[in-house]
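name: query_chain
kind: protein
chains: 1
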Amino acid sequence: MSTSGFFRWPAPLARMCTAPWGLGLRGKPALLAPGAAVTAVQMAGRRDRPALLPPLDESDLEEQFVKGHGPGGQATNKTSNCVVLKHIPSGIVVKCHQTRSVDQNRKLARIILQEKVDIFYNGENSLVYKEKREAEKKKQERKKRAKETLEKKKLLKELWESSKNVH
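structure:
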């Protein structure tokens, strides 16, 4: 299938991954699989360690190598090191061009696809959703502690100023 044939697949099932891990992937927009929430899908493929997800069957995958794009000039634009991976049963497509190495891009694409397939089939019971919920709870706890600390500081400041005015 040609690269133009790739773009005829349903657009809501694709996700472009073009930046290295450390360069702000969290801000990149992601196109979603039907029924998946934005935050969990955007988190897919962002962990340093692979999740304990069921392995993908290689016979269910369709893999293509297309020419890269973006910054890097000729070294990026003329080499076919961008990996397009499609999970045939679900129709989920992942395009990964995070590194210049085809082997690393293949591994990263499989990790991302594995997490997206988990979200697609398990929904709110997927590992990505659970980690997102845990992160939100921790963030809320930190906010609560920071707010309490700020209130204590204000109270101490008021007490100190009132004691200063009395003397």
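note: Residues 102 and 121 are 28 Å apart (CA to CA).
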